[in-house]
Amino acid sequence: MSDTTHGPDRKERNAWFEADARLKRRHLADKRLRAYGIAAIVFALGMLATLVGTILITAAPAVTQTMVTFEVEVPEGSVDPANPSGGSYQTMLNASIARIFPDVDTPRELRELRQLFSNGGQYQLRDKILADPSLIGKTVSISFPMSDIGDQLHKGVIDRNLPPDFRRVNDTQIAWYDVLVERGQISSPLNWGLLFNADSRFPELAGLRGALVGSFFALLVCFLVSFPVGIAAAVYLEEFAPKNRLTDLIEVNINNLAAVPSIVFGLLGLAVFLNFFGMPRSAPIVGGLVLSLMTLPTIIIATRAALKAVPPSIREAAIGVGASKMQTVGHHVLPLAMPGILTGTIIGLAQALGETAPLLLIGMNAFITAAPDSMFNPSTALPTQIYIWADSPERGFTSRTSAAIIVLLGFLVCMNAIAIYMRKRFERRW
Amino acid sequence: MSATSLLAIVLILSLIGYFWGRASAAGLKRGGQGMHSIPAYHGYFIALSCGIPSFLLVLIWLATQNTVIDTLLIAGLPAHITDGVETSRMSLILSEIKSIAGGRIFGTPDPALIAAAERYNALRGTASLAMVVSALAVAIAAMSYARSRVSPEFRARNSVDGILRWILIVCSILAILTTLGIILSLVIESMAFFSRVPVFEFLFGMEWSPQIAMRADQVASSGAFGAVPVFWGTIFISAIAMFVALPVGLFSAIYLVEYADKRVRSFVKPLLEILAGIPTIVYGFFAILTVAPFIRDLGTSMGLSVASNSALAAGGVMGIMLIPFISSFADDAISAVPQSMRDGAYALGATKAETVRQVLLPAALPGIVGGVLLAVSRAIGETMIVVMAAGLMAKLTANPLEGVTTVTVQIVTLLIGDTEFDSPKTLAAFGLGLVLFITTLALNIVALQVVKRYRERYE
Questions:
Q1: Which one of A47, A51, B75, B423 is least enclosed by Cβ atoms within 10 Å?
Q2: Which residues pair with A141 in a beta bridge?
Q3: Contacts A40 to B, Cβ<8 Å
Q4: Would residue B138 count as lying in a domain?
Q5: CA A217, CA A204: separation in Å to the nearest integer?
Q6: How far is A153 from chain B (nearest CA, A)?
Q7: Would you call A296 an interface residue with chain B, using a CB distance cutoff of 8 Å?
Q8: Is the confidence at residue A1, as pLDDT, over 70?
């Protein structure tokens, strides 16, 4: 009997408790979802920070380059003034090194001593004499990079407290290095060589000039082709094209090209530009043409959006005072759409600058020790240079690769910043 | 004369044509004639008619000159050199002739080759002279014809508009030509490959070792070009990438749309999109510099053996790259669900999480699926991360700690540093490229269809 009197009560209370518990569970689920979201964002941004952070930290040693300064005697008669490039500069350099370390005489020790210095010193000496032949017979002061191991030792990357078998320099080399430091012959100025030297097998001599010039030529070709062609295509599709099979086909093609993997464009460049048309391998002109085919969809899509944003009243007004369709577009619509078009173009070019895979296939990863003179000479580009350096085993290339990546990211940030600025500054809302 | 200076001269001729046409039309106008078009349009007409034909002529000439000269050169070689020679050997002979012609002589070449080198230089000289003469002749002829049409009745503006319109049409057809070029080059080279290695064997063979097939006695030996392990590696790495990117991208999109306040959103969203703007080569370097050693150390500390080029490292880093891709697609799709549907769910007492799970996600599903498909297509076609961080050996394994290889890695390794075009090794790259192109194309088309259908639901 008590069940009947208390039943509904208890049931009610149970139901209330259940509802309360359920509500708690539901709110907990809500909080969980929120936490997942925050965790996801923290993970993504954490990865971004790790990426940028590790690259910055790895690049730090490449900011400076350890240099060594020697007073080199250039004896009268050792260099023929009529033909100064024929002198044996390495011998003179070795003589001045031997003056500082007179007790080093076994071939093995001499070799170990020279391992501390880059072999670029003799060329620097030669260039100095070439530039000013009156220096023959005098003492010339030259300052040139330490070798990879010397550089690592100076920057503390090589830990001198490790047992000798675990580091790449032996105790005598460290002692010689300390002598040089004491004599004040070691300095570490800013590493301008990274930007202004051409590529080299030796990390201390390797620089990005060839890659920068190559990327510049490739982007120039890319711009010269994709900018006018992209605008023309977009103007036709947006302003003139009748709705028919052909224009539908063109639109489908543009949308699909935008999503074709970049390496497929590399295959196209290899088969068509290099093989069929016989264009030069590794040349920035081919790289630029391939990149322009990839950039074209981006520019066309951006231009069409910019043209769409120009209100029809502008066109109607122009037509109304007697302009032809072409005049309307050329004199009024295009100039008004230009900020949007340029923004899209810069973003497209920034993508092209970072593109690597197609350039690898057309051979822009060759080892070339001189910057190209024209867009028809073999060359590397910034991203392919990064690829080459990342593949090189020398320790010094790790920090140079990171430094090159920072240069690349710097260009990308600048280009995108210009694009954003232009969008904010010039884009009109109607 | 170089082609560049020739084009410059053509440009100057066009400029002269412009001023000539404008001046003569202005003369007519001053003479009291009522002109149909303003003088400037007569100038434009002459400039365009003078410049375009010779510009096209020079381009076509440059594009075909090398092929024509090579053909003439081969046709003129004595029989004892050309008899029974394969195409690959022929191109070597041609390059030898060209280096002799350039004055770089190694050893004592066949006198026939020296004669051919002289003929080559002569042909080149004739060709470039003929190009200059014909281009200038065309330019001047076209200019004088166009000048003869300057008259009061001539509708110069309409003609110029017509010409410009054709230029626009040609430019937009370039998109079709590019696609056509991709398809043709992939198909033609793949046909050459499949004539040596059967299609069936390529698509379903279980062993991939193209390097072995480089040996002459082993050309197209059976089993060397079975691409299944390569396809598997691609799918495996893409799956790992999606395993990272999908939850992270989706949850961050849900948080940004439904939970975050405006300030956080406007700050976090651009930051996430930076991840999409970083070049893939940077991700590749990040993978070998940081992620792969980290995973290896972690695995070793747990007693697992981890390959230095593990699929996990390559796929994981690729996943990070794809996060903004997924999150921005999901963001758009969830934001596009009408507010009324949210309000309806809240009115029934649903919490935010329940609204998301039971109302918003089902409604936004087509958009999200479209984005996921596009991301998968990106992952399959992604090259630099895997070239740097994934393996070269084709392995059929489901262990993410081992190294696997992908289609794009194989394309790059098969083609780098190799210009010979008739070894099955090089051609295999085009076979893989064709498969890659078809797969990504199909994924993109399906994705665009899905997204389109979804859009139609609410607009």
A1: B75
A2: A71
A3: 247-252, 255
A4: yes
A5: 26
A6: 21
A7: yes
A8: no
> CATH classification of A209-426, choosing from 1.20.5.440, 3.90.180.10, 1.10.150.120, 1.10.3720.10?
1.10.3720.10
Q: Domain locations in chain A?
A: 2-61, 64-190, 209-426
Number of domains in chain B: 2
| Same domain for B390 and B308 | yes
Q: A160: Cβ–Cβ under 8 A, 6 or more apart, which residues?
A: A153, A167, A169, A174
User: What is the 3-state secondary structure of A330-379?
Assistant: HHHHHHHHHHHHHHHHHHHHHHHHHCCHHHHHCCCCCCCCCCCCCCCCCC
**What tokens does A395 get?**
């320790």
Same domain, B153 and B245: no
Domain that holds residue B83: 3-171
- Which amino acid does the sequence have at A410? G
Nearest-CA residue of chain A relative to B383?
A357
Nearest CA in chain A to B255: A37
- Which chain A residues touch B282 with a CB distance below 8 Å? 51, 55, 354, 386, 405, 408-409
pLDDT in tens, A35-80: 999 999 999 999 999 999 999 999 988 888 888 888 888 877 777 7
Mean pLDDT, range A229-241, rounded to an integer: 93
Q: Which pair of structure tokens corresponds to residue A134? A: 């009156």
**Which pTM does this prediction carry?**
0.88
Asked if residue B268 lies in contact with residue A391, where contact means CB atoms within 8 angstroms, the answer is no
Averages of pLDDT over each 10 residues, chain B, 459 residues: 82 91 87 83 90 89 82 78 68 77 73 81 86 90 88 88 92 88 91 86 84 50 74 94 96 94 91 92 94 92 87 94 93 90 93 92 90 93 92 84 91 76 79 94 88 65
Q: Using CA atoms, how far apart are residues A338 and A426, in angstroms rounded to an integer?
A: 9
**Nearest CA distance, A426 vs chain B (angstrom):** 21
Which tokens go with A96?
A: 């001045």
Question: Using one digit for the tens of pLDDT, what is the confidence trace for B196-215?
Answer: 888 888 888 888 887 654 44
